Amino acid sequence: MEKMECRGYVVHKLPEGGWQVTAQSEVSKDTRPEVYLTMEPDWRDAALSDPAPLPWASGTCCVPAFPRGYRSYLHLRFPDGHVETEADRILPLERGFNFRDLGGYRTSRGLAVRWGKLYRSARLSRLTQKDQTDIRQLGIRTICDLRSDAESGRDPTPGDLAPDIRRLPLNLTMDPNTPAHTAGSADQALALSMLRDSYRAFTQSRTAYAEFFHLLLEPESGPVLFHCTAGKDRTGVTAALLLWALDVPWDIIVQDFVISNQFTSHLMQLIAPGGGAVDASHPLWPMAWAYPENLEAAIETIVAEYGSLDRFFAKGLELGPGWKEDLQSKYLVS
Question: Is 182 in contact with 293 (CB distance < 8 Å)?
Fold first, then answer.
């Protein structure tokens, strides 16, 4: 989050860390919110510790950054009791990447996805000890690994990152280690075509998706992290289905999907690990890019088979009546 506007106030993320909350000139002082910085993503939990509001000066409230490794949340509490919460979406890691929080996205009804409950990431096998410590502080209870058995065997997730680590492999139509996916035998059109076919194949993973969404619906399930190798394709389709089920508009779902393009250099090192410079002319470049058209192809495949996403969840995943209301009640906040 670089900039957010709410009720006549603008919240800027500062380059050095922290935030600045600024009142627009036409806003009355009577509408000024109390500003808090806490370690709790839910204001109701933060209020229990009775934090002190930060001071305003000439229409501006400067919010300091927490020390690196400590997750913080900015709360704006308005006089009518309404609370807006913001946080860093992307979590910085030393050896991990594409690790982010799905919190804060607004639904079509104006509700927001809860911060600190749903995380997505690339592989977790190369984390430093500090990375692992930072992730454990998030209180993640379950990690869902969407990779194949071969991938998980080569790059295992640290077993003590969460109490519950589940293997939920999604279907693939290709093996990234086959000769067809080396720089010498592929071109960009072929790479893009095969990648798009994989997106269609992900949607056939009904067993994995059923277990994933049943897990999310368990009343006592804690914060959940799901990941694949790059955190872009299998994770991207899974995040899109989850956000759609939470009533997040499609344009915002796509905005979340393309955040992976901030990590293209990391992704190319996975695909072409030669160590040299790689640019957009590389034959495998499409494998490292998050194309919205690929995501659309996955959704179109589901709709072609089931008639709608609602029927996919209800019939394909057998979630039962009231599943969407239960999911939204658990992961959305007003």
Answer: no
pLDDT tens for residues 244-292?
A: 999 999 999 999 999 999 998 888 888 776 656 667 888 888 888 999 9
Q: What is the Cα–Cα distance from 115 to 169, expressed in whole angstroms?
A: 26
Tell me the pairing of strands 112-113 and 142-145: unpaired
Which is it for the CA torsion 304, 305, 311, 316, positive or negative? Answer: negative
| CB neighbour list of residue 32: distance below 8 Å, 6 or more residues apart | 23, 56, 79
pLDDT of residue 274: 67
**How many CB atoms neighbour CB 124 within 10 A?**
25
- Judge contact between 124 and 161, C-beta under 8 A: yes
Domains and CATH numbers, the chain: 3-86 (no CATH), 100-333 (3.90.190.10)
3-state secondary structure at position 19: strand
Closest CA to 230 of 286, 198, 268: 268
Q: How many residues does the chain have?
A: 334
Positions of the chain with pLDDT lower than 70, given as ranges: 1-2, 69, 173-186, 273-278
In angstroms, the CA 301 to CA 49 distance is 48
